[in-house]
Design brief:
Blueprint lengths: L3 E6 L3 H12 L1 H8 L3 E7 L16 E2 L13 E4 L7 H10 L3 E4 L2 H17 L4 E2 L10 H8 L5 E7 L2 H13 L3 H11 L7 H4 L2 H15 L9 E2 L7 H10 L1 E12 L2 E12 L11 E8 L3 E8 L3 H20 L28 E11 L4 H11 L4 E6 L8 E8 L2 E2 H11 L5 E10 L4
Helix pairs in contact: 1-11, 3-4, 4-9, 6-7, 12-13
Amino acid sequence: MQEINVGLIGFGTIGAGVARVLLENREIIQSRLGCPLNLAKIADLDITTDRGVKIPDGILTTDVNEILGNPAIDIVIELIGGYEPARGFVLKALAAGQSVVTANKALLAKHGNELFSAARENEVDFYYEASVGGGIPIIKVMREALAGNRINSVCGILNGTCNYILTRMGSEGADFAEVLSEAQKLGYAEADPTFDIEGIDTAHKLAILTSLAFATPIDYDRIHVEGITSIKPVDFDFAHEFGYKIKLLAIAKQEEGQIEARVHPTMLPESHMLAKIDDVFNAVFVNADALGPSLYYGQGAGMMATASAVVGDLIDIARNRLNGGLRRVPDLSFQESAITPACYRPMQEITTQYYLRFSAYDKTRVLSRIAGILGENEISIASVIQQGRSQTGGTVPIVMQTHKAREANLRQALEVIDELEIIAAPTVVIRMESDL
């Protein structure tokens, strides 16, 4: 009976999960695949620490070259993360005719186009389901299940750390720093959470989804990125009064030949499907012309959820090899000749609604002065919440919800407003999306 041999580079949390699934579910995988899928080698700098998985003798090694270019190994799994040496390892495997599976969204966001090109040149498969949404099979959905659709927009909650923090802040009124500290203790946030809370991790994933949706090369640098550090508990109170919830949202849409790709805190109507996704869960909302709106929801990270996606990719590639169908599905769903550079809409040109929270001194004519400047910049106000007067002559929040306005107009207005003597701090801006 033919066998498919796998080499795993990186034996951390996710690597241990992959090893567990391959070893413990060996029989059910074989019954679905039709042949054994063997974990032949695991390479890591540390092969002595107990990962909680019993590894057969002779599999662990500290020499990655026992995997890369080894003719006995058909598929290489890269799970070390980061840019280098991951990029070099993947390129070496592809050049040797080995198919590759990765969960490395940062690598794909920065070097994906180069790696896809190398996979094409060497006529091998390169799969990456676990790079977006952890165990949610969104890559497979967009590459295959929606192949007959024109995708109008894709948006989602793609970072469990941020979603956990925002959920806690909204439900308990907790402060950002307090919830972040708790998330780190629970293992939901890294010791250095910058990539998560500043939106970078989410933007890496959105870069991949944007390419899959709109047949354009991955271009992380064209994505507008904002994090969640400026959000305060009071913003959740006002959002609730407006009937909205706050999420860190990744948004990609194509309109009039231009792509919008942006990551930022967003107010969503409480009735929207994405507004109901809480805690560490992820979800992707796709609007396609034939299917219409659809939601894909589940665990976006974690050892076993991510391992599930990695092993699913392994089985897909193994099936391709067994049936002589390598390169059956294009890397970005579209044929190479159809993938062309896109025109991205500058952030200054987007149009949406806005939530504005002004920190104003308690003086007369404050509201009229702010409204006047907004009006001069073609920004109309949909509703206003003005709290009671300060008993100490200090500041009070004035909150406005605008009608749809152009980003450039808003920024121009705020440059003037934030310089007024009646304004004590920079205005807090959260975009509002009601028609995703």
